[in-house]
Fold HAD-superfamily hydrolase, subfamily IA, variant 3.
Amino acid sequence: MIRAILFDMDGVLVDSEPVHEAAVADALAAVGLPPLAPGDYERAFLGRTDWLGFRDYLQETGREDIDLDEVLEIKAAAFARRFPHEVRPLADGQATLRAMAEAGYRIAIVSGALASEIAMVAERFALGHWVEATVSGDEVPEGKPNPAPYLLGAKRLRVAPEACLVIEDAPAGVRAAKRAGMRCLAVDRTGDPEALRSAGADQVVTELTPAAVTALAEHRT
C-alpha cells in the first residue's frame, strides 16, 4: 500500500532546468572554460547533483586543475541571483502535490538541488505547509541515479521504500527510484518518453494529475 509520494523538484514542481543550465554556463565562463556543447548539460547535469556534473565535466575536458568547490560556489550564487526572475512554477506538479497531501499521503521533496535551493522554492511557491521532509543533493554521499536520496526520503518520512511512489522527470531520477524499490510515475517534459520508459518508469505521462498518481498508487493503471 502506497503511503508516501516523493517528488523530484526541478522539472516536476518548477521550470528551473533552463535556469540551472544558465547558471552552469555562468560558472564555466567565470573560470575561463568554454560553453557547454549541445547535449552536454542533459548528459552531465540533468537529474544529477552539481557536484557530479562538474566533476565529470572537468575530468572529461582535462581541467581537473580547476577548483571544484569554487565552481560549485559560483554556480550556486548564479542560480540564486537568477531565481527570483527566471524560475517559473509548473502548475500541474504543484497542484498534484497539494492534492495528494490533502488526500492523506505523506509528501517529501527529493532533489539533486542544494538545500538552500529547495528552501527557496518551498518558500516562494508556498509548498512548505504540504511537505513533511526534504532531501537535497548536498545531504547524500551520491546523487541520482544512486538510490540513496530516495531511501533517505523514505527514512525521513518513516515509510518503507515499497510504500513510496516517486514522481520524476529525468532518467537518472527514475533509475534512482527503481533501485530504491519504489514505484515511479514519470512526467515527460522534453518530448522523449522512451528515455523514461527505458529507465524503468512504471508509467509515463505528459501532464501530472492527481488521478494519474492515485491510479498508480492504487495499481489502477
Notes: The CA atoms of residues 151 and 184 lie 14 Å apart. The first helix runs from residue 17 to 30. The chain has a mean pLDDT of 95. The two ends are 15 Å apart (CA to CA).
